[in-house]
Amino acid sequence: MPVGTQAAVKGILPRDLINDLDAKIILSNTYHLYLRPGHEIIRTLGGLHKFMNWPRAILTDSGGFQVFSLNSLRKVTEEGVLFHSHLNGDAHMFTPESTVDVQIALGSDVMMVLDECLEYPATHESARLSTARTVRWARSAFEHFKQYDDGQRALFPIVQGSMYADLRRECVDQLLEINARGYAIGGLSVGEPRPLSLEMAHTVAPLLPKDRPRYVMGVGMPEELPEYVACGVDMMDCVLPSRNARNGCLFTSSGRMLIKQARFKADPGPVDETCRCYTCKNFSRAYLRHLYQAKEITFSVLATLHNLTHYLDIMRRIRQSILIGKLPELIREVRQNVAALDSVPMV
User: Fold this and answer.
1) N or C end of the chain, less CB within 10 A?
2) Is residue 166 annotated as a catalytic residue, yes or no?
3) Cα separation of 102 and 100, whole Å?
4) Domains delineated in the chain
5) Could you give the strand order of the β-sheet that contains 91-94, starting from the edge strand earlier in sequence?
6) CA torsion sign, 162 to 164 to 166 to 168?
7) Would you call 61 a catalytic residue per the annotation?
8) Which of 20, 61, 115, 272 is catalytic?
């Protein structure tokens, strides 16, 4: 899912997300929209779909990850999380119930419960207490959600447990009692080694119902996407395609390309000869490097379009490989390509 934190996927128009990318669903952020412009304003303007003119599905997270990233600006209680806005310092309270209310006001199609997301590393005891609280909050959220549940939207509980497989399994066992329409795996991409993220997904995904969406939050690199799908994951979101695009890092079939490098100064070729996107069909590496060096906004637009195309095409290729029974071959191919490529540092 392309990430549209502030009701906009940075660097690309909704029109292009539909016409060029055929994105079926995007993600927006409850925390940021709650603070600005405010969920009640968005409600009065017809909800997120009308507000941002997006006719397809929208998933919103609960804002829990953002709140817990505030560190000294928040305090966790059994009731919820007291936090101070990063915008103006005003105090606010998120509870399991209030975050459902906010997402209902936003008009989300898929909503997330409030969960507690720990930084890495965390002790087993702190993770145990945090996971237990996450389960209690999930039960409270679903009890509150009953008044809104018309069968047209879904609320997902989130599996936590830090990097402890036993806590993850216990969390799944308890959340399955909720009988939700889908389940999310959270608490990843919080500073842990990337192989550990995948290990936790491999632990949790097979334990979740196979007839309902399984969503891993905040992953991953292009070469990791088939690995997550192989362990049973159906949905993923990540800011990397758009964020890295703005920073001059382009994802290609031959690895990551840092467009600022001098070797592209007079390069007439496209970013990726195998790519179908508007950027690759119409512009050279030299032109894109020039735009980046000149700090032209057009660079971010063209780079974002390319990176999102790359990601969504990977997902299309994965779906096709599943339909024809060749996902294992695709994963082997991706692993071989990764092993063959020189490592290029992220920007």
Assistant:
1) C
2) no
3) 5
4) 1-112 (no CATH), 139-146+155-238 (3.20.20.120), 243-340 (no CATH)
5) 74-76, 81-84, 91-94
6) positive
7) yes
8) 61
